[in-house]
Protein 1
Amino acid sequence: MAIEDFAFLIPLLPALAFVVTFFFGKKMYSGGALIPIGAIALSCIISILITINLLQNPEEVVHQSIHWFAILNLGILIDPLAAVMLSMVTFVSLLIHIYALGYMSHDPGKARYFAETALFTAAMLGVILSDNILQLFICWELVGLCSYLLIGFWYQKPSAAAAAKKAFLTTRVGDVMFLTGIIVLFSGIFKIYNGNLPEGVYVLQFSEMFNLIPQLSAMHTTILGFEVSQLTIITLLFFGGAVGKSGQFPLHVWLPDAMEGPTTVSALIHAATMVTAGVYLVARTFPMFMGAPDALIVVAYVGGFTALFASTMGIVMNDIKRVLAFSTISQLGYMMLGLGMGAVVGMEAVGVSMFHLINHAFFKALLFLCAGSVIHSVGTQDMRQMGGVGKIMPITFITMLVASLALAGFGIPGTSIGTSGFFSKDAIIETTYLFAEHTGNYIPYIFGIVAALLTSTYIFRLLFMTFTGKPRTNYGGHESPSVMTVPLSILAVFALIFGVLTQTKFYHFLEVTFENSFVHVNIEHLAELGNYDLVHNPGHEPLFILWLPVIVGVAGLVISYLIYYKKVVDMSTIVSRNNPVYKLLYNRYYQHQIFIELIALKITYGLSLIGEFIDRKIIDGIIDGISDGTIAIGETIRKVQTGVVQSYATAVIAGVGLLIILLKLIVEVQ
Amino acid sequence: MISMPIVSLMILVPLIGAVLTLFSKIKEQTRIIALVSSLAPLVGALYMIMNFDSSTPAMQFVESFDWVPSLGILYKVGVDGIALPLVLLAAIVVPATIIYSWGEDKQPNQFFALILALEAGVMGVFTSLDFFLFYIFWELTLIPMYFLISIWGGPRKDYAAIKFFIYTHVASLVMLLGIFALYFAAWAQSGIPSFDIPYLLEQFQFLENTVLRDSIFLALLFGFLVKMPAVPFHTWLPDAHVEAPTAGSVLLAAVLLKMGGYGLFRVMLPMLPFTGSPKLMISILAFIGVLSILYGAMLALAQTDLKKMVAYSSISHMGYVTLGAAALVPLSVSGAMFQQFSHGLITCLLFMSCGAIQHIAGTRVIADLGGLAQKMPKLTVLMLFGFMASLGLPGLSGFVAEFMVLTFSYLTLPGYVLLALLGIVVTAGYHLWAMQRSMFGVLNEKLGHLHDITNYETISMGILALLVLYFGLNPSPVLDMMTTNAEQIVSLMALAGV
C-alpha cells in the first residue's frame, strides 16, 4: 500500500482523538493528553512521508474525492503546497502538545483543553488538504469555532469570555466575505455553463475553478460606475476572509485580545493552526489572484500596511504576549505583502511567502512557548515586573534569543549563513524591491524596510526588558521542566537552520505546485490576463539592497540596547500620559473604541433597540388596536347573540353563504 | 403483502395514546404510555423513509376513501418529498419532548395527552391531500397548544394564550375563505365538487378571473405567513414562547411553525406561476424573507430574556425558508425545505436549554444569569452546540440549509441574498453575546444552589444534537427527496411561461 492511501488519516486521527479525549479524557493520565499527542504524531509521520515522496516524485500529487450531496464533493488534495503546510502544522502542533503536558499539568480542565486543541489541529489540517473551496470553508469555520473555545478556555474570566466572542465575531466578518465570494463564484460558474452544470464534475474543486479563470475574468459587472471583472470581485472577497483569519488590517483587532487563552493556545493560533489559514487561502487560490491584478495590488498594500502598522504598536506594549501578538500581525502582513508581489514575480510569490510562513511558524511558536515558560515561572505577563529572568532560566533565554534573531532576520547576505527569518523575510523585501524597480512604485518596499527596523526594535526591547538587568519585582521562579524545554530546543534548532537547509529547494518545490497539480493552469496566460510581465531573474539587486534589511535589523538591536540596557535615554519622559504619539500607540490607535464601542455597541445595538421599539409599539400596537376594535364590535354583537361558539358558527355559515352568492355572480357575469 | 394504512396509523396511534394517557392516573404509567404511542409514528416514519422512492415527485403511501361524496370531500392522505421529512421531524421531536418532560408533575396525564393530540394534528396536516381534511387538522393543532400555554404557562399565560389563539385563528379563517373560494370557483368551472388538493391546484391554473386568482393566492398566503411567522405578522410568537412551558415552546417552534412553510411548498409555490403577476409575488415573498432574516436577527440582539431571543431567532431562520422558496431554483427550494427540517431539530435544543435554565436557575433574564457553565457543564456543552448550529456552523445541519438557500437564491435574487448575508454576523453576535453573559464569566452568587441537567434532559438533547450533526454531514437521506419535489415545483414556472 502506498503512503497516499493513508492521507485521509491526517485530519481524521486528531478528530478521533478529540472525540475520545472529550468524552473519556477526565479518567485518563494527564487528561488523556497522550491520545492527541499520539494521533498528531502519526499524522505528522504520514505528512512527512508524503512530503518526502513528493520531493522525489513531484508528479505524484495525492487527489482523492467522494460524492457528498447535491453537486458537492469531499476530497483530499496534497500537492507540494499542501504537503509543506501539513508537515509544518503537524510538527509544530505536536511539539506544542508535548510542551502543554507540562504547561497545563495543574489545570483542572486539561481534558477539555487537549480535546479542543486536537480538534483545532484536525480542523486546520482539513483546511490544508481540502480539494474544493467549500470544504475548505467548512474546516475554516471549524478553526474559528476551536479558537473561540480555546481563547475562552478559562471561561470564568469575563475578559476571556469577551475575547473569545470578539475573535469569533471579527473573523466572522471575514468569513461572510469569504462565503459571499464562494456564492459569487458559483453563480459565475453557473452562468458560464448556461445553467447546465456538467454531470459528474464538481465545479467547486480547485482544479475546475482554475480552468474557468479566463471566462471569469472576462465577465464584468459595474459597481459604482467602475467596471470590475467577476474574478476581481471573487478574489477580493476571498481575501476579505483571509484578512479576518490572518489578522490583517482592519480586522486584526481580535488577535491581541486572543491572549486570554493559555499561552500554548496562543502558540497554536499564531504559529500553526489558525492565522496562517488566511495566507494559505490566498496561496491556494493564487492562480485566480494572478488573473486579477487589482486584487493582487490590494493584497500587497493591505499586507505591507499591516506589517508596518502592527509593528508600531509592538514597540510600546508592556505585556510580553501582546508584543508577540502584534509581531504576528506584522509578520502575517509580510506574508501577504509577498503574495501581493505575484504581480511581478508570478508563482514565485507563493514560494517566497510560504517559506516565510513556515519559518515564522517555527520561531513564533518558539517565542510564545518561551514566553509561556517565563510566565509559568515568574507568574506575570507584565515585562515591567520582570528583568533578569535570563539568570534563572538559561535555556529559555537562549532559545528565545535564537527566536528573536530569526524574527529580526539576522544573517550575512551573499552567504548561506543566517537564521531562518533572514532568508525568508529578506526574500520578501527583495521581491518588493523588484516590484519597485519594475513599476516605479516604492511604497511596498518602504513598508517592508521600516517594519523591519521596528520589528528588530520591539523584539530586542522585549529581550532586554525580560531577561537582562536586575529583577524589578520579587518574583520566585526556576527553569521549566524538560517536557517544556526539550520542545523549545527542537524549535530553536529549526528556527536557526531550517532556512539554511531548505532555501533554494523550497522555492523550487512550491513553484511546481500549480504546474503539476493543475496541468491546465498556464502562468503566462494568467499574466496576460493580469496584464503584467513576469520578472524571472531575481537576485541581481545591488549590494546595498541586499544589506539594508540586515542593517536596519542591527540598528533596531542597537536602539533597544541603548534605551533598555544602557538606559541612555530616560524612558519615563517619553512614556508619559501626555505624549500624544505614545498615547496613540499605547491605545492601539483607538481601534477598540472604534470597533467595539462605536460599530458593535452604539450602531448595531442602537438599531436593534429601535427595532424592538417598532415591534412593541407600532406592529404590536396595530395588532392590539385591531383586536381592541374587534372586541368592541364583539361586545355589540354579543348583545344580539347568546354565546361565542354559536356566533362563530353563524359567522362561518354566513361567510360561506356570502361567498357562494359572490361566486355565483362572478360566474354568471362571465 | 397486505399494505398497512401506515399514514393513518401515524395519525391514529397518537390520538388513541392521547385518550389512554388522559385516563391513566399514575404518573409513571402515563408517561410510558405517552412515550410508546409517540414512538409508533417514529417507527412508521423510518419505515416510510426506507421504502420511499426519492426519484419521483409523486405521492406515495396514499390512502383514499370517500367521506362526503356529494361535496367532494375525501379522506385522502399520503406523503411525498415535501411531506415526509416533516413527518419524520415531528416523529422525532415529540418523543424527544416527552423524554425531556419526564419529570413533569403538574397534571402529567393531561400534559402528555395534549402533546399527543398535537402530534396527531400535525401528522394530519403534513399528510392530508384533501383541503377540507387539511383544514380540520390545521385547526386541531391550535387547541392543544392553547391549553398547553394557558394551563402550564408562565405569569402572563392568559394573555399569551388568547393572543396566540385569536391571531393564528384569524389567519386560519382567512385561509379558510381562500380554500372555499378556490373550491367554489373550481366547482363552478368544472362542474365537479372536490377538495382534492392536487386537483384544486390544477384547476387554479385555469381560473379566468385574475383578481379572483390573486385574492385566493393572497388569502392562503396570509394564513401560511402568519403561521411561519413572517415579519410583520410575527408578534404573536415571542409572547406565546415566553409564556409557554418548555414542551409547548419546543413543539410550537419545531413543528407548528413548519406548517406555515409546508403550506408555501405544498400550495403557494404551485399556484405562484399562475397568479396575475408572478414577478410581483416573488418580490413580495423575497422581501418578506429577507426582512424576516434581518429584522428577526436585530430584534434577537435587543432581547433581555433568553427565550425571547431564541423566539426571534426562529423568525430570522424561518426567513430563509421564504427566501429560498421565492428564488424558485430547484436547489434553493429544497434548501428552504431542508431549513425547515434542520431548524426544527436545532430549535428544540435551544428551547430545551432555555427551559433547563429557567427550571434550575429560576430566571431567564440574561442579565441575572452569568457563569452557569461552572455549575452546569453538560448543559453548557449541549447549549453551545445548539447555538453553534443555530448560527450556521458548517458541519451541522443549519449550515447545509442556509448555504443552499443563499448560494442558489443568488442565481435569481442576487440583491436580496447580499442583504441576507449581512444577517450572518448579527446572528453570530446575538448568540455569542447571550452565551457570554449567561453561561460564561463570573458565577452570579444570587442564583443560589444550582445543579446540572437531569439524565432525561441530557438524553433527549443529546439525541437531537447527534441528529443535527448527522444531517449536517449527510443531508442526502431527506434532501434528495426534497430536491425531486423542488424540481417539479420549479418546472411549473416554465409551464406557465414565466
Protein 2
Amino acid sequence: MTEMAWYQWMALAALGFCLGTCLFHFFRLIKLGKPVDYSNPAGSIAQGVKYAFTGAMDPRRKESAWLHLPTYTAGLFYHSGTFLSILLFFFIVSGNVPQGWFAMVTSTILFISVFSGIFILVKRIFKKELRSLSNPDDYISNTLVTLFQLMTLLIILLPLLPSYSLTVLPSYRPIVLPSYYLIFTLLMLYLPLGKLRHVVYFFAARYHLGNFYGRRGVWPQRGIKAEDR
Amino acid sequence: MNGLTEGQKRKALEVFENFSDSKLLTHLNSCVHCGLCAESCMYYQVYKDAHYVPAKKVDLVSSIYRRYNTLSGKLVPWLTGARDLDAKTLEEMIDLFYGSCTICGRCTMHCSIGVDIGYLVRTGRAILASMGFVPATLQSTVDAAINTGNNMAISEQDFIDTLKWLEEDLQFEVNDDKAEIPLNVPGKDIMYTLNPREPKFFPLSIAAMAKIFYAAGESWTLSTRMYDVTNYGYFSGNIQEATSIARRLYDEMDHLQARRCVLAECGHGTRAFRWEAPNYLGRSFPFDVITSVELLAEYIRQGRIKVDPAKIPEKVTLHDPCNLVRSGGVIEMQRYILRKCVSDFVEMTPHGTDNFCCGGGGGQLAMSEYNERRMKITGLKAEQIKNTGATIVCTPCHNCVDQLIQTNAAYKLGVKIMTLAEIVADALIINNETLKP
C-alpha cells in the first residue's frame, strides 16, 4: 500500500463520521427497544419478521413492485450498485483497483446501476406525483449516490481502455482520483442528514412490520386447510 | 385555524419527544419518497391526484418531526422539506389525516420500505386530537359513547325493549318458549357485544346471532350496561378517550365474569378491543377476546351447529373488512364459513389482505364533512362487486354493511348486503331435537 494522499484521508475520516452517526441511529433504536404489546398474540413474531424480509419482498406479492417493475428493477440494481461501490471503495483506497474479470463484472453491474440511478432521477424530475413529493434532499441524495457510482465505474473502467493507460492516464489521474474521493466524502458527510439514513431505518421498518403482522397472524399468510374447503 | 396557541403546539410536539419504543422513530425516518404506494390507495386510484399519494401523509407527519427534532430540520428546513406546525400545515393535516384516509393499511402492506403508513396517519390524528382539532362530527360520536355508553346514544330502556321483542321473535321462530336473549347474567361462557347500529338500525342481525347461540346451546349473555364494541376514540386519535371506552367494556367483562368476550362483526371494534385495548389499559386480559367470525367457524368445525348450503343458492361474494383482515389476521375463517353455508361463493378481485376498503373505514362514516369524497371512492368497491356477478355481498362488519348499503344505492348494484351471522342463521338447520330438547 502506497502512502495515502490527503483526499484519501479526508474520505476515510468522512466514512468514520458516517459510520459513527449511523451507529448512533442504530443504537438509539436498540435502546428504545421494541413495542411492549399486552394483547394475546395470534401468530408468531419470528415468522412474521422472517416473512417481512423474504416473502413480503417478493414482487409477485407486492403490488407496488409488480405495478412498477421497471422502477422496482432499477431500484434493485441501484441499491446493489451502491453497496458494491462502497465495497469497492476499500479495494480502491488500498490501491487494489479491480482488474481482469473482476473489473469486467463490477463495471458491468455499475454501468447498469448508474443507468438505473439516472432513470430514477429523471423519473423524479418528470413525473408529477413524484415531483410533488420531492424536496431538495431527494434530488441531492439521488445525484450524490449516482455520481459516486459513476466515479467508481470510471476508476475501474478507465485503466481497461487501451489508450487510457498509455496516454490519457497521466493527464486524467489528477482529476479523476481526487474527484472520486471528494464525491465519496460528500456522500458520507451527507448520508446521515437526509433520507439516505434509511440505510439504517429500512431494516428497522421491516422488523416492525414483521412484528406487527406476525403477532396478529397476518404474516406469513396461512392457507385454509384442504378438509375445510 | 390562525388561533394555534403555543400551548396547543407544545402539546402536539410532545408526541415526538418521548418515544416509548423504536416504532415511531423508525417509521418517521424511513420513507424515501419513491411514490410506489400511490396505486395502493383508493383515494389516489379514484382521484389520480398527487395530493392523495400515501407518502404525502407520511411526509406531513415526518416533516413536522424533522423541523423540531433533527439538526437539518432546525438549521436548513428547506433541504429536507421540514415544515413548521402552523395554520397552513394544520389545514392540510386535517384534510389528509381525517378527510382522505380510511386507515385501511393497504399502502402499508405494499410500501417498498415497510413504513407503517396507517400508524403514522393515526399519529397525525393524535397530534390533531391533542390540539382539539378532531372533526366535530367524529367527536360527537366519541362523546355519545362516553356520555351514554354507546355511540348511538340508545337508552338502556330502549335497548332492553328491542331485545325483548327480538326474544319473542326468536321464541316464535324456533318454536321454543324457553329460547332467550339473556341479559346481564353473570358467570356465562360468553359475553357478547354489539355494534350499536344493530339495535338502532339492524336488529335482525342480533336475532340472527341469538338464533345461532340457541342452536349451539351456548351459555351466553348480553350486557345492557356496556355492549358497544365500537371505539371511535381509536379513530379520532384521542387515546385517553379510546382508553376510557375500552375500560368500560373491560370492566363489564370483569363484572359479569364471563370466560370469553365475543366481539360482534365490527372491524375497527375488533382491532380496538382485541389488539389495542390491552395496550391502552397496560395489561393482558384475563379472559379470551375473540371475534364472532372465529366463534361461528368454531361452531361449524365442531359440529355444534349444522348448516345447509342449499338454503342459499344465490351467488355470494365477500367484502373483507380492513381491520379484521389486514390488521387482525382473521382472513380464512369467514371464507371457511361461507363455503359451508352458501352454494356459490365467489371472491372479489383483489381480496383478502389486498382487498380495498369499502370507503367507510377510519371513521369516514361518522364524518359527514367528507361524504362526497367517501361516496366517490366507494365506486372502486362498487366496481369490484359488479365484476363478481354476485347478488349477495357478505361482510363481517356493521360499519362496512352501512357503507355498502349506501354504495349499493348510489351505484345501483341491486345486491343484498348481509352480515356473516345473517348468512349462517339463514343456512342453519334447526331440527326438532334442537327445538324441543
